[in-house]
Amino acid sequence: MQTLPKERRYETLSYLPPLSDAQITKQIQYILNQGYIPAVEFNESSEPEQHYWTLWKLPLFGARSTQEVLSEVQACRSEYGNCYIRVVGFDNVKQCQILSFIVHKPNQNSYGGRY
């Protein structure tokens, strides 16, 4: 078994090969199934000391489908294609971010495919 080439790792799932569109959709569906609140964030840098990302819009409190979240990812990507973009899941009971993963890196079409 071969390891991935040495490169900077960004978020949850970053040690895996890039996610496909179907895998991104499944991760977003997991967020929704768990009752977490999805949000889209962006930042020019993904340096570890950069803890604060800019929220694209308010968290998607009423999101019921993956397509709603993916539409916001696409809109953010259209506006800030030169930034890292990630999807996060917030737990409103624990009042904290539970997970996050990169869906777009600058200088690439996206992390997976079109999203």
TrEMBL record:
Q: Please report the stretch or stretches of sequence annotated as the Ribulose bisphosphate carboxylase small subunit domain.
A: 9-106
According to the lineage, what is the superkingdom?
Answer: Bacteria
One GO BP annotation is: photorespiration
Keyword Nucleotide-binding among UniProt keywords: no
Q: Which Gene3D superfamilies match?
A: Ribulose bisphosphate carboxylase, small subunit
Asked whether the UniProt record includes Disulfide bond among its keywords, one would answer no
Q: What is its main location?
A: other
List locations, semicolon-separated. Bacterial microcompartment; Carboxysome
Care to name a GO molecular-function term for this sequence? ribulose-bisphosphate carboxylase activity
SMART domains (alphabetical): RuBisCO_small
- Which portions of this protein are annotated as coiled-coil regions? none
Could you list this entry's UniProt keywords, alphabetically sorted: Bacterial microcompartment, Calvin cycle, Carbon dioxide fixation, Carboxysome, Photorespiration, Photosynthesis
Q: How does it assemble?
A: Heterohexadecamer of 8 large and 8 small subunits.
What is this protein identified as? Ribulose bisphosphate carboxylase small subunit
